[in-house]
């Protein structure tokens, strides 16, 4: 049996913001580069496996493993970190937040790797949410934050979008959503949390078709880029072989033994429900010392922050990002907008080569314009020589 192409860090029984805990928790991660290089944390996104982040890393890119020690961290619920699919019994998974994920990442970074400061945190979509969480939860720990196509607080409209996706998934179980930000099922039982192969196929394909109306923009469809740029023969081919395949092809029919060992990310319905709950509850002000004051939380950010929404993103629109930057202290936030019709997919996962080049250029220029603090950099260099 092949071994996973990532590592596991054991967290023990992990206490959560909700007051619940994940028993014998672990966080999955993969690194690129030398640990003595300046470190960058690059979290995963909704449904994403660790390998789904590789497209932004390379010796020809800003995230160059010859220059940085890059740590990709996996969300709770992605099938690689602690998730319903790799728990011993089918039961409700504890309620986890961006705060819980980032606290686990911080322990990995500080206790396992001994890192005392990050050069940057960067991320797309839910990865952007984690980037904002890092910048507010540990504001003195990094030089730079680059959230792209994401938000510091999940908007009401975004919550509604996720409810549509969630409800399509749950309909196959003849049950309803418990509500926005809730754990998914209105009714809770082991039977409901046991998904047959048929349940998975029908539910996940339905979810994929709902997502298809949100991931790309109206202009993307109007110009039929699914044919000219992605090579599908027509709309139905695109819906089946892009969206349904995305929903169903990441390990849903693996053996229980493989799933238990977490050898791959799993688009398991219960995993998706965990990530949806995390996403719907995203809000950097829901932590001490902000206590629900969003403007105070955003004003606490000290890292130079490059905020990159996409012009045509249907659930993270530029006007939300404009407000986030406006709430930061003068000189902290910089706003740039993807000039793209690829919608949310402008920010990832690498399908639009023009957008990848644009993103990488913005990051390269921002990194160059915001070098590490000289005193901090000198202290770290001396520490490395000891």
Report the oligomer. Answer: single chain
**Order of helical and strand elements:** EEEEHEHEHHHHHHHHEHEHH
Give average pLDDT, whole number. 91
Shape: globular
Known CATH architecture: 3-Layer(aba) Sandwich
Description:
There is one protein chain. With 386 residues, the chain is of the alpha/beta class. It has a single domain (7-385), classed as Rossmann fold (3-Layer(aba) Sandwich), CATH 3.40.50.1820. It has 13 helices and eight strands. The chain has helices at 98-112, 126-137, 156-171, 197-215, 218-222, 225-228, 235-248, 256-260, 269-280, 294-299, 318-327, 353-369, 374-385, and strands at residues 7-15, 21-32, 39-41, 69-73, 118-124, 142-148, 304-307, 333-335. Strands 1-2-4-3-5-6-7-8 form an eight-stranded mixed beta sheet, sandwiched between helices. A hairpin with a 5-residue loop joins strand 1 (7-15) and strand 2. Helix 1 packs across helix 2 (126-137). The longest helix has 19 residues, at 197-215. Mean pLDDT is 91; it is low at 251-265.
């Amino acid at each position: 049996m092949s071994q996973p192409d990532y590592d596991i860090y054991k967290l023990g029984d992990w206490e959560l913001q909700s007051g619940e805990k994940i028993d014998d928790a672990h966080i999955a991660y993969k690194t690129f580069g030398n640990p003595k290089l300046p470190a960058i944390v690059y979290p995963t996104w909704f449904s994403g496996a660790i390998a789904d982040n590789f497209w932004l890393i390379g010796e020809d890119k800003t995230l160059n493993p010859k220059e940085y020690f890059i740590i990709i961290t996996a969300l709770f619920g992605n099938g690689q970190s602690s998730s319903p699919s790799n728990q011993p019994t089918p039961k409700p998974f504890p309620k986890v937040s961006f705060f819980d994920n980032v606290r686990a990442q911080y322990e990995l970074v500080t206790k396992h790797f001994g890192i005392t400061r990050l050069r940057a945190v960067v991320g797309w979509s839910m990865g952007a949410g984690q980037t904002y969480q890092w910048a507010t939860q540990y504001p003195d720990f990094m030089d730079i934050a680059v959230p792209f196509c994401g938000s510091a607080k999940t908007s009401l409209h975004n919550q509604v979008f996720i409810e549509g996706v969630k409800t399509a998934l749950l309909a196959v179980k003849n049950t309803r959503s418990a509500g926005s930000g809730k754990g998914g099922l209105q009714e809770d039982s082991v039977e409901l949390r046991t998904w047959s192969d048929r349940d998975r196929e029908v539910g996940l394909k339905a979810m994929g078709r709902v997502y298809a109306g949100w991931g790309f923009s109206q202009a993307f469809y109007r110009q039929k880029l699914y044919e000219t740029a992605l090579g599908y023969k027509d709309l139905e081919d695109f819906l089946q072989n892009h969206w349904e395949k995305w929903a169903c092809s990441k390990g849903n029919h693996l053996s229980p033994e493989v799933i238990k060992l977490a050898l791959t990310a799993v688009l398991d319905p219960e995993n998706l429900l965990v990530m949806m709950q995390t996403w719907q509850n995203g809000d950097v002000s829901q932590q001490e010392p902000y206590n629900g004051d969003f403007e105070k939380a955003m004003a606490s950010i000290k890292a130079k922050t490059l905020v990159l929404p996409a012009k045509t993103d249907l659930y993270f629109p530029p006007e939300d990002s404009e407000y986030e930057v406006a709430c930061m202290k003068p000189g902290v936030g910089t706003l740039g907008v993807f000039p793209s019709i690829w919608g949310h997919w402008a920010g990832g996962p690498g399908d639009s080569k023009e957008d990848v080049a644009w993103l990488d250029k913005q990051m390269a220029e921002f990194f160059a314009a915001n070098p590490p603090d000289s005193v901090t950099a000198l202290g770290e260099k001396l520490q490395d020589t000891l």
